[in-house]
Design brief:
- The chain is of the alpha+beta class.
- It contains 3 helices and 7 strands.
- It is elongated, with a radius of gyration of 24 Å.
- The termini are far apart.
- 10% of the residues are buried.
């Protein structure tokens, strides 16, 4: 019955929880388009989902932003480089892109000392 497991479930489904759907009195654990299991009760389906997560066969996506350490505040990694930006009065201000995290931290420290104001920079 391996063919049945890989066939996506029908479109008339009700989402019970993340990765768990109900269709025609059966409960399915679905990851992407692949049906991982079929169960008679939602409890069984949820337990199987948790087992798959523990075995790392399903890797849940993170919701929201990853918590940042205080050391890297205002620094984002973009395409292998580090971008320094800060929100001021509801608008994002861009302060530069750097090759290394250490360079971005150093610049951020300078901007913090001068109050994030471009006019206070001494360009000697």
């Amino acid at each position: 019955m391996g063919l049945e497991r890989n066939r996506p479930i029908l479109k008339k489904t009700q989402r019970i929880a993340r990765y768990v759907y109900k269709n025609h009195q059966k409960y399915y654990v679905v990851c992407g388009k692949k049906t991982m299991g079929k169960f008679n009760t939602p409890t069984e389906a949820l337990q199987y989902k948790e087992q798959l997560i523990r075995e790392k066969k399903i890797i849940p996506k993170r919701r929201g932003r990853k918590p940042r350490c205080e050391e890297d505040r205002y620094i984002r990694r973009v395409r292998g480089k580090y971008m320094l930006q800060k929100s001021v009065n509801g608008k994002t201000q861009y302060f530069g892109t750097f090759k290394t995290l250490q360079e971005a931290r150093e610049e951020r420290n300078i901007f913090e000392q001068i109050g994030w104001n471009w006019e206070n920079i001494d360009l000697v």
